[in-house]
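Q: My labmate handed me this sequence with no annotations at all. I'd like to see what the chain might look like in three dimensions before we decide whether it's worth expressing. Could you predict it?
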Amino acid sequence: MKKRPEDLRSFRWFGPDDLRSFGHRSRTKQMGYGHEEYAGKPVIAILNTWSDLNPCHSHFKQRVEEVKRGVWQAGGFPVELPVLSVTETFMKPSPMMYRNLLAMEVEEVLRSQPADGVVMMGGCDKTTPGLLMGAISVDLPAIYLPAGPMLRGNWQGNTLGSGSDSWKYWAERCAGNLPQKDWFAIEDGIARSPGHCMTMGTASTMTAIAEVLGFSIPGASSIPAVDANHSRMATRCGQRVVEMVWEDLKPSGFLTRASFENAITADIALGGSTNAIVHLLAIAGRAEVDLDLDDFDTIARKTPLVANLRPSGDFLMEDFFYAGGILGFLHEIAPLLHLNAGTVMGTTIREHIEDGKVNNPKVIGSLEKPVGATGSTAVVYGNLAPDGAIIKTSAASEHLLSHTGRAVVFEDYPDLKARINAPDLDVKESDVLVLKNAGPKGGPGMPEWGMLPIPNKLLEQGVRDMVRLSDARMSGTSYGTCVLHIAPESYVGGPLALVQNGDMITLDVESRTLRLEISDQEMETRKAQWSAPKPVYGRGFSALYMAQVTQANKGCDFEVLHAGADTPEPAIY
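A: Here is what I predict for the chain of 573 residues:
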């Protein structure tokens, strides 16, 4: 152990023989705790992102008690601190807008109170990166407890995957192929338990990435939310964080560039969400690790798709768990990993995965027999995306990965919603659908609008995919030939703002290019004629967001929250 009781951060609040500490101790006793219950013990903050409007975390009331049990068992003093519950389902205009607010709250809650270590409880898409970003910035011993995926969905014996099958069956409904009673039956059966999306969407991607970065108990990220193993894992999180406090093991003690390269490799091999790119860039910025889009593309070019999970494959997270889970998966891709990267266990990734085993090669393939070719995600550049754009090739139509088509432009999402199904919309299958003003500032919050809907009249003709471009994100559960995260975004005058109906656009994934087929002179003429939109927000967090948020290729974090000068510990007067 590196610390003694008097070295604990919380000792500054409870230890001194002065009036201020008298107040801290007496108020703790006011809550029914005896001096012997907390004196000289690590104070463990349990950051709980539960709420009545977050279905992914509906089991957290029980899990927090199981974490507390582990903290007590290990000789710590647990305190539950609720923080912002960023729910993908209900928060508007976009939950992405509030990821940074959660990160700010995590940092300030931990810094301002007598916490020696922290257990972060999250799982729904934006909670994982928000929690990690804040914890990295404050740099206390921290462990991450993932919510776990929900059980498989079911409809008339058909396995349903959250998100992915919503889009699939909605397309059939719009095409007139699915009656209302079946649509409602799918609604009843697609989400059957607590837990986050059980496809390899953003939630499952980010919880896996948190583990690969080293923040979780080995194997934690693939345990289904309602499995008894999940309860035992929660208790172990409580035990382990107390040990970490005495060892003084903080994120800065194990996070390196190697950790982030491992996370990118795992993301690509899982067929993970494109949202992971934005989040990893932001997390790396907090950890002072230099990461950019080219790192993702370089790793993608040599990393095959190994996990057979929707939307890139056939199976769901429950199948993944039974097939060997995250440890079996990482064991299979071990030759691609930096195995000496550290973890919250005080050990290396190598030690985590040495006993990993695959029980079903249909679900988890291998480097020798992968599920798909290298590069499940690609980064493209060109005069339409000078700072880069993203495409999830494993979820796209192969015949559209090299395509030139006529632009059909929507100025913003209300325009899209109003006109996409208009009978007189001039659109055909070979066209390229373009959505502007859906980026970090234009959305605002870079909503998941990037899987632009196929016009109903084309759905009725049997069309199920088209090339679609935007500065938006798309759900990790989405699919299709969707070019996303175009940077700089149209709202700030990026080239996407200059696209007009009828322009020809070329996408060539093999050459990593995205081009608007007009001359440089025409581009400059249009740029000179462009005028910036009027500001929408004049006060509050929204105004702060608009002033501070970075572009997608920089992670959409706030400039002021990137790693920089150390923030001093609070004075206690």
